[in-house]
Amino acid sequence: MSGSGRTVRAAVVHEVGAPFVIEEIELAPTGPHDVRVKMAASGVCHSDLSVQKGTIPFLFPTVLGHEGAGVVIEVGEAVTRVAPGDHVVLTWMPACRRCFWCLRGQAMLCEVGLAESLSGAYATVGGTRLVRGLGTATFGEETLVPEGEVVRVDPSVPLELAALVGCALATGVGAVWHTAHVTPGSTVAVVGCGGVGLSVIQGARLAGAGTIVAVDQVAAKLDTAKSMGATAVVDWSSEDVVAAVRAHTGGRGADFGFEVVGRAETIRTAFAVVRRGGTAVLVGAGSPAEQVSFSAFELFVDAKTVIGCVYGSTDADRDFPVLVDLVRQGAIDAEGLVTRRIGLEDVNDAFRAMEAGEVARSVIVYGDDGRKR
Ligand code: APR
Ligand code: ZN
Ligand code: ZN
Question: Do 149 and 184 have their domain in common?
């Protein structure tokens, strides 16, 4: 593949477990169905860390980042969805609109769009082909993606906030609205209050949940959870979580329990805090190596529902404009999710801060030189 001659700075992970290295990469020529986007901002999501560490299997070398927004600067000759100058949010699950799942309204399970994106030409570094990380590669000054991965949004919303729609808000709010179908007055417990869990809390508030119990092991996360609509908080590190959630939900447990960590023990917790006949929604992205066990008896006797949840059952074309509009109106507090604005060169420290529980979200803001503004 010969490159476009267009070089940009990006955070490359050369192999599983290796750090993010800021390097000049060469973008491929913009193909007929491709869109080149000048990134304005990219959130730093836990799934990128899970891919870098190998918890979630992926292909290397790669440029990660999947929660981004920017401005279209070039489109291929067959592109009809967007034009240069459009503000866009990227989706890591582009819908092909023709596969079994797309035709049944389950675009988040599309098996064609992401596969095409991962196999398509994206960029090279030092002559070596790079994989477009999670299909989007937003940890770079520019990205090149198939047109199905960009959704045009209202340009009046700051792109630093619109970026969060691309994963945290789509996943978290979508889990409540499209996966669980939470109804007004419901009781909800949320285990894990990072960027995604806080978005679940906001979705539950917007859905009219009556009681929203936030569970985390970091006190600062619980404070943020309250500001986003949690009506009660439980500290995993010092409290009996199941007893505490029951105390807030009439002694029965919650109608809905959302797991937003991706670990066996928190999946067990989300199941345990749900009432008999209630629903546990598994939002966190876990490892293929980690097993969760349930007794045959408990699964039967309590008649609980356990739902897997990919990307909040999001259809980006349907949902992104709605979420961006709620951000514009202030009905969704996106600014409250942003703990730090950082430069691309700070990405390794951003993941350290995430693991240390210091941040809800770090957001990379790309200035002209990719550094802090
Ligand atoms: N009990 C309670 N809270 C916990 C526990 C636990 N045992 N372990 C971790 N947490 C909390 C952390 O303190 C943190 O606030 O879970 C939160 C996870 O947040 P982030 O690391 O910011 O992750 P986030 O980006 O929100 O993603 C959460 O969703 O999309 C997936 O891959 C993603 O699996 C990840 C999950
Ligand atoms: Zn499809
Ligand atoms: Zn994500």
Answer: no
What would the two tokens of residue 276 be? Answer: 């008999």
The CATH number of the domain where 351 resides is what? Answer: 3.90.180.10
Predicted confidence pLDDT, tens digits, the chain (373 residues): 445 679 999 999 999 999 999 999 999 999 999 999 999 999 999 999 999 999 999 999 999 999 999 999 999 999 999 999 999 999 999 999 999 999 999 999 999 999 999 999 999 999 999 999 999 999 999 999 999 999 999 999 999 999 999 999 999 999 999 999 999 999 999 999 999 999 999 999 999 999 999 999 999 999 999 999 999 999 999 999 999 999 999 999 999 999 999 999 999 999 999 999 999 999 999 999 999 999 999 999 999 999 999 999 999 999 999 999 999 999 999 999 999 999 999 999 999 999 999 999 999 999 754 344 4
Based on the domain organization, do 213 and 117 belong to the same domain? no
Evaluate whether residue 317 is within a structural domain. no
The ligand placed nearest to the CA atom of residue 287 is 1
Domain that holds residue 254: 172-311
Q: Is 272 helix (H, G, I), strand (E, B) or coil?
A: helix
CA distance 327 to 164: 10
CA of 187 to the centre of ligand 2 (A): 34
| Helix (H) / strand (E) containing 42 | strand 34-43
Domain stop point among 293, 311, 329 = 311
Give the pocket of ligand 1 (CB within 6 Å): 45-47, 50, 171, 191-197, 215-218, 221, 236, 260-262, 265-266, 283-285, 354, 357
**Both 189 and 296 in a single domain?**
yes
Q: What is the CATH number of the domain that holds 230?
A: 3.40.50.720
Neighbours of ion ligand 3 (CB under 5 A): 45, 47, 167
Give, for ligand 1, the residue of 42, 44, 46 to mutate: max count of ligand atoms closer than 8 Å to Cβ: 46
Amino acid sitting at position 176 = V
Measure the CA–CA gap between 341 and 2, rounded to whole angstroms.
35
Query: For the packed helices 219-227 and 195-206, what is the interaxial angle rounded to 10 degrees?
Result: 30
Containing H/E element for 305? strand 305-308
Atom of ligand 1 nearest to the CA of 262: 34
Structural domains of the chain, count:
2
Measuring CA to CA, which residue among 313, 321, 354 is closest to residue 93?
313
Atom of ligand 1 nearest to the CA of 286: 34
The answer to pTM > 0.90 is yes
